[in-house]
Amino acid sequence: MRILITGGAGFIGSALVRHLIENTEHEVLNLDKLTYAGNLESLTSIASNSRYEFVQADIVDQAKVSAVLARFEPHAIMHLAAESHVDRSIDGPSDFIQTNIVGTYSLLEATRAYWSKLPAGEKEAFRFHHISTDEVYGDLHGVDDLFTETTPYAPSSPYSASKAASDHLVRAWQRTYGLPVLITNCSNNYGPFHFPEKLIPLVILNALKGKPLPVYGDGKQVRDWLFVEDHARALFKVVTEGKVGETYNIGGHNEQQNIDVVRSICALLDELAPQHPAGISQYAELITFVKDRPGHDLRYAIDASKIERELGWVPDETFQSGLRKTVQWYLDNQEWCRRVQDGSYQGERLGSTDPKDLIA
Fold first, then answer.
1. I need a surface site. Which of 13, 115, 137, 152 has the fewest CB within 10 A?
2. Which of 197, 167, 153 is nearest to 82 (CA)?
3. Topology of 2-195+225-255+299-319 in CATH?
């Protein structure tokens, strides 16, 4: 297969690209705008592979996308390109509306024009896989409730509202035009190459520098954590074996309170990086509670039984095993971290570890 991936230089996208090149024989074209969160250094290990190609483009640019489709002739599109940081969406929602809604519309229209001209057999086999988030469902109030594929949408932030809108567009293009689509909604991802504004890498890197470890509110918000390499396997499973028109929730079966995540990271660092910064004997001494963010969802939890039942996917990693691998990766890849934090990975200073950048 030839698979076009949008947002393939991002955190989840780069994990998917690496998985496809390292573990399958498929060809991959990575189309990415390279915003601050896009990092080609996350793809160094496969960049020279003959089955991989990178094109810098904005999905809003329908003409450019159409030209790429006409040349590459993909059998499937996996759409991950999105603005995804909740705090950034609160501070400035415009980019989220433009990329997540207008960009998805432009991509759908370019795809529809390309797909409509395919020969009958290729048209039937083609897939448009839209990768979304569990945040479109809002939050859960009961301790036993789970998000299912039929949970009503109730987004809380500009980010989740823009992703909900993009989900609705994808479904409408299937219902109205017959475009063969698949949608997946995933829980919180973590793992290697995660941009350091997100909770787990932020805590790791702040701790190593002896900086405060910011935790929103009381830290009791609950998230279901999914190791990014497990997610990449699930996405490939869906695009190759999923049923057209279906939605699949992808979760890690790992519900954790944010404060427990931070404490677990501190305990692992005490073990793996025992040379503590000056003034502390344990990394947990750096935990700092900060003002909660507006509209902060209390609990997310995914019911991933459908993808297990119908496609046979289950995560390989527990939270404990995945977190240990993640912490060790950041310890072993300090140069990658430095280049992201000081902005040199794209030639300008963009790094920030201000507490407001915390996301969970």
1. 152
2. 167
3. Rossmann fold (3.40.50)
